[in-house]
Amino acid sequence: MEEFNRVKVKLVTCSFFWGSLLMLDYFFPRTCFLCSAAGDDLCVHCQQKLKVICRGVFCTVCGKPFTAGLKPHPCSDCTKDPPAYDRHRSIFLFDENIKKLVHQFKYQGDFGIKRIIPEFFGAVAAEIPPADIIIPVPLHVNRLRSRGYNQSLVLARVFGKLLCRKVGPRVLKRVKDTPTQTGLDRRQREQNLKKAFGISGKHDVGGKKILLVDDVHTTGVTLNAAASVLKSFGAGEVYALTLAFVPSGF
Ligand SMILES: [Zn+2]
Ligand SMILES: [Zn+2]
Hints:
By secondary structure, the chain is α/β, with parallel strands linked by helices.
């Protein structure tokens, strides 16, 4: 009888949960993030507009998309000056559509992007070697307080679920409160991020394969600085994954 009651409670709770979701959809119907058409988070028309980098040709090191070429190969920048990370991939090419999604996510607290990622993740997942741990690029505590969340941690948790890997939110820390990188060129960004990252004392990254996560790859300076620190603490390999790759001149 006790077992029967437990099942009954579970069924009622479950129906209440799904019922609530249906009610929410009824009163607040989903609309496309980009064109506001009713029906879904991203309508079929807008889905087709997003450019998925790993379905095309790209640099095998930094993941920069190429406009032409037969197969993926290292770009001239990575050949001349290899980055501290071993490999980076972005899901999308940054354009006006992705800019709108990233803006809603990063500055307006709209996490709807979480529901869009799985649809496009297959192509990039095949490009990411298995990692021991996923580490988000951290925000300084002052920035975290003013924004209320770390967008890279939100993404790291989504990727963690999709890749079945654990997330280490406090392994890497931002020890310097740097001004925003927006509007700075590569050299200024490098200067800005000098000694910006550290490893939290109780964590050992020695020999580990790490997947670093950030929201967008603009110049790669942030990922490079974070990967350098991880490598200086003995990390075995550092891969990086971002939502979008900003082409030069965007
Ligand atoms: Zn749409
Ligand atoms: Zn490259």
